[in-house]
Amino acid sequence: LCPCLIYGAYVFLPFDAPLLPTVSARLVYTLRCAAFATFPIVLGMIISGISRLCHSALEPFGELQQEVEIHRTYVSQSIHLFILYFFNMAVLATYLPQELLKLIPLLTALFAISRLIFWLSYAISRSFRAFGFSMTFLPLLAMLLWNLYGMFILEPEGLLS
């Protein structure tokens, strides 16, 4: 489903990436796009804080309820995945040709939407969370494989430069 979503958005959404001739400009562009990917994480932190505050008002020294634990787990996992996603996206931006830089905001949007889907499905039932997780993890895995291909096959001489 992820490749179909990315391809459909790439073909049908009417925007193009700005002209980014240098690596530093590409990294700044990726950093700015990644700021939007933090939205679901910040929203999760807010909801986690509110749920913890509401629960603590009823039982200040009691154990955490499942509702509080769901939000805390979501935020923790999302931060870990965001770090991996961001670093892979930054490396990806250095290897992509100019005409494919449109993928950076599309992958960012996919990450944000996937994390929201994971959160919703995790809150409904823990058995449904695999769909949202796979929509986050599989593009991450594809980026990692492309980055390794780019580093070791396309440009092995520039691996450390």
Automatic annotation (TrEMBL):
Nucleotidyltransferase is among the record's keywords: no
Q: Does the keyword Manganese apply?
A: no
Q: Which domain of life is it from?
A: Eukaryota
Q: A cellular component term (GO) from this record?
A: trans-Golgi network membrane
| Biological process terms in GO annotation | regulated exocytosis
Instruction: Identify the keywords attached in UniProt to this record, alphabetized.
Output: Membrane, Transmembrane, Transmembrane helix
Q: Where are the transmembrane segments?
A: 29-50, 79-97, 103-124, 131-154
Name this protein carries in UniProt: TMM79 protein
Give the source species. Answer: Grallaria varia
- Gene that codes for this? Tmem79
